[in-house]
Amino acid sequence: MDKLLGGQIGLEDFIFAHIKGPKKEVDVLKSEDSLGLTITDNGTGYAFIKRIKEGSLVDQIKAICVGDHIESINGKNVVGCRHYEVAKILKGLEKDQAFKLTLIEPMKAFEMIEPRLKSGTLSEAKISKGRETIRLRSKGPATVEEVPSEIEEKAIKKVDDLLEIYMGIRDSELAATMVEAGKGKNNPDEFAVALDETLGDFAFPDEFVFDVWEAIGDAKQEQF
C-alpha cells in the first residue's frame, strides 16, 4: 500500500476487483488443438480468461470474453484450481468433441471513467514509469514485486510458445512460473527437480522440460 500511495505503481496499471456478474454456459466444439486462451488466476482459487488470441477458435465465439471467470468445465467445478490446472483440463479435452464452459462475467464499470488529464497533480514520470506488479498467492499476503526483466520477458515468451506447441494453450502466467523455477539452476536435471516441486501435478514430459531449459538459456544468450 505504501508503494501504491507513493506513486511507484503507475495510474495506468489498473487493479481490477472481479465482482460477479451474470453466469453463462457456452458449448464449444474443440475443432483445433489450440483454443487460443491465456488463463490466469487471482491466487485464491479463481481462474480467469486473461487473453484471447486473435483469429483463434475461441475468438470466433463471441460469448466468451476476456475477464470471464471459469467456474466449471463439462460440469466439473474448477473453483479452487490454479490457472495451470485449468489449462491442463482444457488441453486434455478430446479434439473434434464438444464441451461446455460455465463462465461468470465480471461487472464492468471502468468504461464510465474518463482518462486522467495530463495536467493532474502527479508527475508524468510517476504515471507512466511504474515497474511494479501485484502478485496474489493462495498462501501468504499479496506482495508488490518488480516486473520481469527484459531477459525474463524474452524467456517467458519462448516458454509460452512451447506451451502452445506441446499443450495447445498459451499461458504466460504458467510460463513465468516455469522461468522463475529455472533461476539459479545449473543444468536440466536441477531444473526438472524444481519444476516437480513447483508444478508436479502437471507431469511434464522430459522432452518438454529440456526444450524449456534450452529456451531459457537461449533468451539469456541473446543479451550478449
Automatic annotation (TrEMBL):
UniProt cross-references to PROSITE patterns, sorted A to Z: PDZ
Domain PDZ: 25-105
Pfam family, one: PDZ
Gene Ontology MF term list: identical protein binding
TM ranges: none
SUPFAM superfamilies: PDZ domain-like (SSF50156)
Superkingdom as given in the UniProt entry: Eukaryota
Family recorded in the similarity comment: Belongs to the GIPC family.
PANTHER family found in the cross-reference section: PDZ DOMAIN-CONTAINING PROTEIN GIPC2, RGS-GAIP INTERACTING PROTEIN GIPC
Record-given protein name: GIPC PDZ domain containing family member 2
Biological source species: Pelodiscus sinensis
